[in-house]
Amino acid sequence: GDILVVCQKAVSKAEGRIAALAAVEPSPFALAIAAQTDGKDARIIEIILRESRRIVRMDRGHLIVETHHGWICANAGVDESNAGEDGIVILLPHDADASARRLSDGLRARL
Fold first, then answer.
1. CA 70 from centre of chain
2. Which of 30, 35, 74, 96 has its CA at a distance of 20 to 30 angstroms from the CA of residue 66?
3. Residue 111's pLDDT is what?
4. Quick one: which of 17, 1, 4 has its CA closest to 94?
5. Are the C-beta atoms of residues 77 and 52 closer than 8 Å to each other?
6. For the chain, what is the largest distance between any 2 Cα atoms, rounded to a whole number of angstroms?
7. Mean pLDDT across 23-39
8. pLDDT tens digits, residue range 72-107?
9. Angle at 84 between CA 14 and CA 57, to 5 degrees
10. Per-residue model confidence (pLDDT) at position 76
11. Contact 62, 75 (CB under 8 A)
12. CA distances from 69 to 8, 11, 25, 39, 95 (A)
């Protein structure tokens, strides 16, 4: 009956769902969107676009998108904070349900 809460960022890091900005070449579309924001890095916009199925809305430097998972969220869940080093962003897990199952199964086996 216990409940364990694990933040998405820890799961994403453990699964290697990070992106190095130095390896990203922004598309012309990402550059155009970045030019409409308050200085948002075009490489981050490019990563957001890659993680998105469609743009729902652009508002105050944020992209509200539908992710490939079908979730509607700001910036496709791309996390620029607390990545551990500069120039790295954290992405959502590919399959959060599968990640949760692996965690649950692993804990059951160990406990």
1. 13
2. 35
3. 86
4. 17
5. no
6. 52
7. 92
8. 999 999 998 877 778 999 999 999 999 999 999 999
9. 85
10. 94
11. yes
12. 14, 16, 24, 28, 8
